[in-house]
Specification:
Layout lengths: L2 H23 L2 H18 L7 H19 L17 H10 L3 H10 L4 H11 L5 H8 L3 H21 L6
Length: 169
């Protein structure tokens, strides 16, 4: 792979890949390690002619995260809600810097209450800007499943936000 292409990929996608990995792992150091490994894999195996490099990077990052979980003896992703109140101050500061928009920040916190699959699909859609086809490719499910899960997740998220006093207009 051409060094210039890799540098452009890194400059363009490293921040969003890191944020995606952080949303999965809730660990800044693990997100750092997995992001570096993602781009290392890009150096070693991504061809210049690959048609959707962004979706490929997300898929690699996700697979690396899942492999890390398996290594640590957790065979499945947990479906328990993720509450961020116990996060360290350093990670909160990082998120504050990465998510400037208050509405997106509120959305990010409320996403933590959804199950893993719904949270991941909405995160990829809202924060990473991937379309349904790209999300389907990343998660290796059909675009129709992405559409259905996203619809259900949005409905559930709206209910959660209304219950927590957010104005959903």
């Amino acid at each position: 792979m051409d060094k210039d292409i890799l540098m452009r990929l890194y400059e363009t996608y490293s921040r969003e890949i890191w944020l995606y990995l952080f949303s999965l792992s809730h660990s800044g150091s693990l997100a750092d390690d997995l992001m570096q490994e993602t781009f290392l894999k890009a150096i070693l195996s991504l061809s210049d002619t690959h048609t959707n490099m962004r979706a490929w990077l997300y898929r690699v990052a996700r697979n690396l995260y899942l492999n890390d979980r398996k290594k640590k003896g957790r065979e499945e992703l947990s479906d328990e809600p993720v509450l961020f109140s116990g996060e360290s101050i350093k990670e909160d500061e990082i998120l504050e810097q990465l998510i400037h928009n208050e509405r997106k920040q509120n959305l990010y916190w409320e996403l933590g209450q959804l199950d893993v699959r719904k949270r991941e699909i909405l995160f990829l859609q809202y924060f990473s800007g991937l379309n349904q086809k790209q999300i389907a490719s990343t998660l290796q499910i059909s675009p129709e499943n992405v559409r259905i899960i996203a619809h259900r997740a949005k409905k559930e998220l709206k209910k959660i936000m209304e219950e927590n006093g957010y104005d959903i207009s």
